Amino acid sequence: QVQFVESGGGSVQPGGSLILSCAASGTFFSAYGMGWYRQAPGKQRELVAGIRTGGRTEYEASVKGRFTISRDNAKNTLSLEMNSLKLEDTAVYYCNRYRSPLVGWGQGTQVTVSS
Fold first, then answer.
1. Taking the mean position of all CA atoms in its chain, how far away is CA 17?
2. Cα–Cα 20 to 30 A to 20, which of 27, 40, 98, 113?
3. Which residues of 75-112 are buried (b: 16+ CB within 10 A; e: fewer)?
4. Model confidence over 56-106: pLDDT tens digits?
5. What backbone torsions phi and psi does residue 63 show, to the nearest 5 degrees?
6. 74 close to 81: Cβ distance less than 8 angstroms
């Protein structure tokens, strides 16, 4: 069973940057697209960015040009570089399969953007 461990979150000021990491255990990591999701207080979890097995990336409109998703299949890791952070980016960030997430989610990592 694949498991996910997210890390790298923290508290930053608007305009700041963070790099999130996700370590995935289990097999077949390279065979699936992977994505980053986030859930803000009072809101549903949403897909933020995805990367296909071939490397093509897709982003939610509000983060385009600010976030960059990448993967290292040899290390079974997924990253999310976040720049020009805004208050509305505050959320718990999770990693999972892209567009077809597994039911088992990791603990997530908290990102807080405040003045």
1. 14
2. 27
3. ebbbbbebeebeeebbbbbbbbbbeebeeebbebbebe
4. 999 999 999 999 999 999 999 999 999 999 999 999 999 999 988 888 899
5. -110, -5
6. no
